[in-house]
Each structure stands twice: as structure tokens, then as C-alpha cells.
Write a structure and sequence with these properties.
The protein has 10 helices and 9 strands. By secondary structure, the chain is α/β, with parallel strands linked by helices. The chain has a single domain, classed as NAD(P)-binding Rossmann-like Domain (Rossmann fold, 3-Layer(aba) Sandwich), CATH 3.40.50.720. The chain has a 7-stranded parallel β-sheet, with helices on both faces. The longest helix has 29 residues. The radius of gyration is 18 Å and the shape is globular. Bound molecules: NADP nicotinamide-adenine-dinucleotide phosphate. The site of NADP nicotinamide-adenine-dinucleotide phosphate has 30 residues, from helix 2, strand 2, strand 5 and helix 7.
């Protein structure tokens, strides 16, 4: 889709939840390059303001920066509802990934994963698609992970929250398409982001992609189908894991891959 068409369909503002660094910032940059203004949400004010200033300067778009923790949806809702602008695109990128054995993961961390990865994307999608449906145009991109394609030992709760986003987006893709609203889930493999680099101490996994490639692939796929898997290696990996292997075998392969995270 050409930038002008993108702007017409998903402008004048896009909201990126988790838009200050890494993949979220890459989404924000890809959207700004298409001439759409931004609302960026993240917790760290300094990093958020730096990204907002960089994008204003580079692309001449307006950028509203909102400091908020997606775990506290009441605050997020209040701040987003107070905006008097039209939001035509939601990208939900923020996530919390408790890594380690389930028995060693605290109740607080499990509740936080559910709040940031499930409750917030669900309710933010509800909040922002209502006016999109009324206008008969708009889009939603939810970030998921190949970890959510089967059970993932050592990442069990995170993987389950990512599976939730796949199923939610697929259902909404069909429901909202006739109303002019395109929904997409991006099921990514490893991405070179500060979050990934902090968790993965060994060298990057095969098929690891730069954040800019993942963001561009997802933005270009919006409106084409319910799901996108960036990168040929990841597409093959997903096919093998979900279509060729038994569930038991796929979980076993995943265990070998996630066992190294700590
Ligand atoms: N990295 C990978 O290898 C990989 C692989 C597959 C899927 N994914 C998915 O891709 C997305 C990006 O993951 P990433 O870890 O690589 O992160 P990232 O996009 O590099 O950074 C996360 C962004 O979200 C913000 N954020 C995090 N927690 C937040 C919260 N509670 N409230 C508000 N903002 C929050 C961060 O800023 P603050 O810290 O300032 O809040 C930052 O802007 C996630 O949905 C993840 O599940 C990542």
C-alpha cells in the first residue's frame, strides 16, 4: 500500500503501545515514514521523549508521548480517552515475559504478564475499534510470538498470553473486515531488540531479524490476512512446528530452545 493510501486508511494518528525502543520504535518509525502522526506509550519518560523528538524531526509528524504502564489499564484508558484526536491504527507491542520455571515465577509476575499481554491489548482494542467501526476504517496490529504457537516450557505463561493474541486477532480479522477495520497478528520469531538481547545471552537464534524488518513486514501485511510470520526461516519453522510435528514433539523442540533462557 502506498504511503498516501496508508495515511487515508489508518491516519490521522496511530497509537503504539510500547513505542519507545526496539520493535515498538521501529513500528513508530515505519508509521511516521508513511506520514501518519503518532501517540506513543511507554513507561520510561526519557526514552519515550527521545524517540518522539527524533521522529518529529525526521518525518515532520506530530508525536504525542504518554507515560503509562500498560499493566494499569485504568490509567491507560483515562489518558487515551482524554485525547481529542482520531486514532486510526493501534499497534500493541508492549509485553512482559517472565522467564523461568512456572514454580519459580511469582504470582505478581504472572498477574503482570496477564495484565500487560492480555488485558491491555484486549481492552485497548475494544476502546479504539469502537470509533474505527463508526468511521468505517482503521487497523489493529497485535504482536505475538512463535513461542505462542505451542506450549513453551520455561516461558509457559508468556507463550500462553501470546497464543491469546493470535486467536483474538484472527476472530476480529473476520468480524471487523466488513466494517472497514483490518486486524493483523504478527507472530514473530527472534527479533534483535534490547529486550531480546537482555534475555538471550548466547548468539542470536537462526532467523533472528532486525526490528525494522519485522515492523515493515507487519505494516505491509496489514489488510491482507489475519496473520503474518516475518522471515522465511520463521515461516518454515512455524510450518514444521504446527503442521508436521505432533504437539508433543513440537513442545519438546521448544523446550530445547527455551531451556537456555534464564
Ligand atoms: N524480541 C523478540 O525476540 C521477540 C520475539 C517474538 C515476539 N516478540 C514480541 O514483540 C514485542 C516487542 O518485544 P521486545 O521485548 O523485543 O520489546 P521492544 O519493542 O524492544 O520494547 C518494548 C517496548 O514496550 C514498552 N513497554 C514494555 N513494558 C511496558 C509496559 N508495562 N507499559 C508500557 N510500555 C511498556 C517499552 O518501553 P518502557 O520499558 O519504557 O516501558 C518499549 O518501548 C512483544 O510483544 C514481544 O512479545 C519479541
Amino acid at each position: 500500500m502506498k504511503a498516501a493510501q496508508f495515511k487515508e486508511k489508518y491516519g490521522p494518528y496511530a497509537l503504539v503501545a510500547g513505542g519507545s525502543i526496539g520493535l515498538g520504535a521501529a513500528f513508530a518509525e515505519g508509521i511516521a515514514r508513511r506520514g501518519v502522526n503518532l501517540v506513543l506509550l511507554a513507561r520510561n519518560e526519557e526514552r519515550l521523549k527521545a524517540t518522539a523528538a527524533r521522529l518529529r524531526e525526521a518525518y515532520g509528524v506530530e508525536v504525542v508521548a504518554i507515560v503509562a504502564d500498560m499493566a494499569d489499564f485504568d490509567v491507560v484508558k483515562k489518558r487515551v480517552s482524554a485525547l481529542t484526536i482520531e486514532i486510526g491504527l493501534l499497534v500493541y507491542d508492549a509485553a512482559f515475559a517472565p522467564i523461568g520455571l512456572f514454580e519459580d515465577t511469582s504470582e505478581d509476575d504472572l498477574a503482570r504478564a496477564a495484565a500487560v499481554n492480555v488485558k491491555a491489548p484486549l481492552l485497548l482494542t475494544k476502546l479504539l475499534t469502537a470509533p474505527m467501526i463508526e468511521r468505517g476504517r482503521g487497523g489493529v496490529v497485535l504482536m505475538s510470538s512463535l513461542a505462542g504457537a505451542q506450549g513453551s516450557p520455561n516461558l509457559a505463561a508468556y507463550a500462553a498470553t501470546k497464543a491469546f493474541n493470535v486467536i483474538l486477532a484472527e476472530g476480529l480479522w473476520k468480524e471487523l473486515r466488513p466494517r472497514g477495520v483490518n486486524v493483523l497478528v504478527c507472530q514473530a520469531g527472534a527479533i534483535l531488540t534490547p529486550g531480546y538481547q537482555a534475555a538471550e545471552k548466547a548468539k542470536p537464534a537462526p532467523g533472528t531479524l532486525p526490528a525494522s524488518v519485522v515492523a515493515e513486514t507487519a505494516l505491509n501485511a496489514l489488510g491482507r490476512g489475519p496473520i503474518v510470520v516475518p522471515g522465511a526461516t520463521n515461516k518454515i519453522g512455524r510450518f514444521v512446528m504446527t503442521r508436521l510435528l505432533s504437539r508433543k514433539a513440537a513442545i519438546g523442540v521448544m523446550a530445547q530452545n527455551t531451556g537456555g533462557l534464564s
